[in-house]
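Chain A, query sequence.
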Amino acid sequence: MVTLTIDGQEVEIEEGKSLIDAANKANIDIPTLCYLEGVNEPAACRICVVEIEGERNLQPACTYQVRDGLVVRSNTPEILDYRKTVLELLLSDHPFDCLTCAANLNCELQALADQFGVRQVSYQGKKNEYPVDDLSPSLVREPSKCIMCRRCINVCSKIQEVHIYDVLERGFPTVAGPAFNDSYLDTPCITCGQCILVCPTGALHGKDNKGEAWQALKDPDKHVVIQTAPAIRVTIGELFGMETGSLVTGQLVAALKRLGFDKVFDDCFGADVVVMEEGHELMERLESDQDLPQFTSCCPGWVKFCESFYPELIPNLSSCKSPQQVFGALVKTYYAQEAGIDPEDIYSVSVMPCVAKKYEAARPEMNDSGQDRDVDLNLTTRELAEMIKEAGLDLTTLEEEEYDEPMGYASGAGVIFGSTGGVCEAALRTVYEKLTGRELDKLELKEVRGKDFKEGELELDDGRTIKAAVARGTGNARRLIHRLQTGERDYDFVEVMACPNGGCVGGGGQPVYAGYDNWTRMGEAYVSRAEGLFTADRNKEHRKAHENPFVQRLYDRFLGQPHGEKSQKLLHTGYVDRKLYTYQEQAEEKKQEKKEKE
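Chain A, predicted structure.
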């Protein structure tokens, strides 16, 4: 431990910590625009500079390590003037479209300009102007709003290990972006959206599809149905001032009915169906001892990561679609048949915690219902909250309502899909009972829940053991795959969720926390969000997918056997080899073209 003084306050803190950590411990606010606790420390923005006795120059608090006896001043008039100057310089090269910006009122640059009373910009001159990249179905990039904080670079490289972003150009035109400042479509971006969650401005944001949703709702010829993902019920409340992890299922349903959706369904029903399909697929693979381990395929970010970087593992991916797409296919077939509605009149909307789901819904393989798309439109948690507010509704004041039948009831197994380890746990609850003929002694397999990388075993009656593993974030997926490929580990069933902060509860479509500690806060938020889901599971009458009476009715009346002929056609799919070398070859070709032009 070392002791130092900041603005007259004595602070004791562990050696090796930064000045910004020490200030935070003493409840002293040192502003920053680039620092991201535990992820990004480039000392690039210079907003966090402080005065240190004995030092000739101002020093960045985010990288300066504490020492015993340091005397630090963080709020002298000179420092405040310096910060204001830096802010004005940043604003001099920034678009002034705050009112229409996706980050309006949740922008760290805007908040600091307000905090420091910047009412005019003294510096005028040329501004960098870059075209907006909105070609991706999931993400939008506005490079003109980039302040070179490098957060996106480090989250993508250090945490996700996808390496989409880098520093481009030098000097005044410097910007962060994909190679050659190209579109996401020209990269192996997995559309996880973690870069959106850490961007301090509106340079990165999700594709906005609210207009299409409102258009569908006002069309009298459309029968508009909506499915809500498990994680939405424990996150959307935060956008209405409720505590993190608040379980607001009934209020969410009420809001959707007030918005005008004809039927409000639960995507957890789709998750229960996935358990049936994926579980029976696993049992067949265990019986034949082929293409093991079986990897889950619920997460479109992970699936695209696998297709791009590990295409040799495609045979190991479960062929079962995600709950969103399973549900979409059933809405336009099974539900249409049950309700006596022409499938062409059904408009299927999903609310997901994930921007990758927008990409997934647009995949050409996802139209097995016979329509152009099984899921017509995807909204994120943020978009739905904005729609509810546009309609003048307050989620906290609504009376609880129930999901509609026949696709509105789910078991607890379907609910826990929203948290890391939940898919694995839900599947094993059913697989164990089908293989042994008896229930698990304990339904809650806590050994596969939690952070980063987990593994566990489930012993069967005949001496066999199902070895399972769970990876959270694609960086951890790389390490898991390395263990498999080197023979260090041997698994039968592997769950991977692309989003590192708890899986879907920390998805790229979830609430955005502003501030240098937002990554840490998201990591903490996942705990209470996940607990909300596990509480909902414990409160369910049925906690195993195969016990869901509405799933049983689905198979009796429509699908027949799990993993059978009809299920194979509607609920299963194939994957595409998107080998990384193709992107590298494209990059080399573009380099050569650029040289020839020069």
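The chain is about 35% helix and 10% strand. Residues 194 and 508 are 5 Å apart (CA to CA).
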